Each structure stands twice: as C-alpha cells, then as structure tokens.
Amino acid sequence: MHASFSVIHEDEHVLVLDKPSGLLSIPGRGPDRQDCLLARVQACHPEALLVHRLDMATSGLLIMARSPEMQKQLGHCFEKRRVRKRYQAVVIGDMGPAGRSGLIDLPVRIDWLNRPRSIICNDHGKPSLTEWTSLGPGPLPGTTRLLLEPHTGRTHQLRVHTLALGHPMVGDPLYSPSDTLLSAPRLLLHAWQLELHHPVTGQAMHWEAPLPF
Which residues are catalytic? Predict the structure, then answer.
C-alpha cells in the first residue's frame, strides 16, 4: 500500500496536495492500477478535478480544482505558463558547486518504439527548456542536488534533459544505469514549489512541499 497524500492548501476553489512517489496521479489501465491520487482525493472531496499530473515516480505538489470552472481557469494558467514550478532532484555526477547554473534547450518527443520513454530529437521534438542550478553535493556520494525549473511541460522533460547532460537522476528506472538503482529506492525527483496568482482572489500564492530526500 502506498503512503497516503498530504494536503498543503485547501480553500473553496482549489486543493494543493503533496503526492507520494509510487502513486499514480490518475487511474491507469487494468484493475490493479486504479489506486491513484485522484481517487483518494475524491473519496474525501468528490468534486475534485485534475488540472495537471506528476509522473508516478515523482513526488510533490499537485493542484486540483473544486469545480469545472476552476479547472478551466487553472488549466488556462498552466497553458499560458503562468504557473511557476520548481523541482529538486539528485543526479549522478558533479555538476559544480552551489550556485552554478545553466539552461537546457533541447527538443523532446516520445520514443514511440520504447514507450513510455522520451528522447531528445532535433528533427521532430517539441521545444523544451529547463533552467538548472546546483545546490551542491547530493545526499549520496558522487551526486549533486539540483534545483530545476521547467519552462515547458514535455513528458519526462526534466529526466531526459539531465540525462542529455550526462547526469541521469538517481533511482530512475527508465533512464539511469541499472547499477545506480541500488542507491535509492525511488526516483529522486520532487515537485518542491508552486507559484501562481489565485484565479479568483488574484492573490500571489506560494506553496512548498517538504523534501523527502
């Protein structure tokens, strides 16, 4: 049984949740993949509607709407990139001292022959942009903790972008060398911070989910 979720923020319009790693955002195919964050939240809040997703292996902040109109407004915020998302990750190798930063501008597409993987593809990939900043040594020897801020939302974008730099994420079953999976029981990627202007009040909102690694 997966760990349950935590509620970070609740008002009459939105729910902000901390999804655990290993839990689907929405139901998958088959009777064994019906347990998911959406189902658990709807058991307490039947009106809750999904706005965006996190990969099953990724933990952290996920926002849900409490009405169809709010779902539409929040979806528009994500579509127009009015939501600021920051992640923390631990990657293999040395990406420099704390404060070193860079920009990854590499097009990403689904690898149709090896789904659910994605790949860098200059010919057919969609524009994909990620800012990264080193936060110094990671919690495991030979690793670096990164702050990652995606400016686009491609499937597995952060995982594929750090891999393209030669620094796969620790514990990644899809993109890391198999021997590194032994060093972490889960993917070390966490949706850490979320910022937006509340669609109803206009207030600048900032949420943060405690780091699990």
Answer: 55
